[in-house]
Structure formats: C-alpha cells, structure tokens
Write a structure and sequence with these properties.
38% of the residues lie in helices and 22% in strands. By secondary structure, it is of the alpha/beta class. Strands 1-6-5-2-4-3 form a 6-stranded mixed beta sheet, sandwiched between helices. Helix 3 crosses helix 4. The radius of gyration is 14 Å and the shape is globular. The structure holds ligand AR6. Ligand AR6 binds next to strand 2 and helix 1. InterPro entries: Macro_dom, Macro_dom-like.
C-alpha cells in the first residue's frame, strides 16, 4: 500500500472513495461533512436519508462506516464514518482507529483501490492533530486491506506538517 499526503481539499480528490468525517445522524454538518455535501450535491443526502429509513434507523455508531454515492464529486463513493469527540478523561483512541479500519473494510467491500481520508475528529471534535496523525498512520499501515492508494488530505499546511513528521 502506498500512503501519500496532500495539502488540499478532499472534495477535489479523484479517487475511488472519499471518507467523510460525519456525525451519527448522517444528515450533514459543518467542516469536511458540510463541504462534501455541498460539492457532492443532494444525491448524497438522499442516499443518507435512505440509510436512516432502512438499516440505520438510529444512525451510525461512533467508529463505524457506511458508503453512499459520491454524487457530483470526482469519486465513486463517499464512505461516512463517525469519529469520537476528543476527551481528556476517557481514552477513545480505539474508536478513532476503528474509523480508519472500518472505512478500509467498507472500501474493500466496494473493491475500491484508492481512498482519500481527512484527519478524522481533528476539527469540531477537538482531537489534537499530532495524536490523531499517529493513530491514523499506524492504523492504516497495519490494516489488512486490498486498498493500494491511501491519501491523507490535510486542509491546512500545519496539519500537513504534522502528518509529514509522523510519516
Ligand atoms: N478537505 C479536507 N479536510 C477538511 C476540509 C476539506 N474540505 N474541511 C475541513 N477539513 P471536521 P470532526 C479538516 O470538523 O472533527 C461536522 O459537523 C479540518 O480542518 O470536519 O471529525 C460533522 O457533521 C479538520 O482537520 O470533523 C460532525 O458533527 C478535519 O477536516 C463533526 O463536524 C476534521 O474536521 C465531526 O467533527
């Protein structure tokens, strides 16, 4: 597996699957979730509504992942995963690692070979970037997956520098 880092916008990535840092409602939000729904168009929300009407009536649990169409994005699928909110008192690292593992598992089920990840939980959910980068890179490196190309798309140069130092 090849791991690459990009300083940019995940909605512009030409990959098989783009991972969304969503929330359990799957109904959209701010940050990368807002950007993906804006650029991808209403088809993505429509697909999320169908998931909620079916198997995911209570929403998606933290650490899990599920795929929808990517709508108008230059990707085939969006894999929505729910990162944990950072906590100083409870160690939720395993849930953050699970987001990466489960996303790759869903990617495998779609036969996706290239996947773009944002730095899950490092925005609104408050996870410190350095620790998030360690968990992201370790988990992806150790994953048993057929995905060949994993791209971490970091929105700003500070986040990029942190991932670069860890890689
Ligand atoms: N491309 C790549 N990375 C981005 C982009 C983008 N277009 N936009 C933001 N980031 P966040 P979370 C970075 O807050 O912390 C939503 O409301 C951002 O700089 O998007 O997992 C959901 O609905 C940060 O480093 O996700 C949830 O309620 C990283 O993406 C909640 O936020 C993640 O920031 C999830 O919070």
């Amino acid at each position: 597996m090849r791991i690459t880092l990009v300083n940019g916008d995940i909605t512009e990535q030409r990959v098989d699957a783009v991972v969304n840092a969503a929330n359990s409602s799957l109904m959209g939000g701010g940050g990368v979730d807002g950007a993906i729904h804006r650029r991808g168009g209403p088809e993505i929300l429509e697909a999320c509504r169908k998931l909620r009407a079916g198997h995911y009536g209570k929403g998606l649990a933290t650490g899990q992942a599920v795929a929808t169409t990517a709508g108008r994005l230059p990707a085939k699928w969006v894999i929505h995963t729910i990162g944990p909110v950072y906590s100083m008192s409870v160690d939720r690292s395993e849930l953050l690692a699970s987001c990466y593992r489960e996303s790759l598992r869903v990617a495998d089920s779609l036969e996706a070979r290239s996947v773009a990840f944002p730095a899950i939980s490092t925005g609104i959910y408050g996870w410190p970037m350095d620790d998030a980068a360690r968990i992201a890179l370790d988990t992806v490196r150790q994953a048993d997956t057929s995905v060949e190309d994993v791209r971490f798309v970091l929105f700003d140069s500070a986040a990029y520098a942190v991932f670069e130092a860890r890689l």
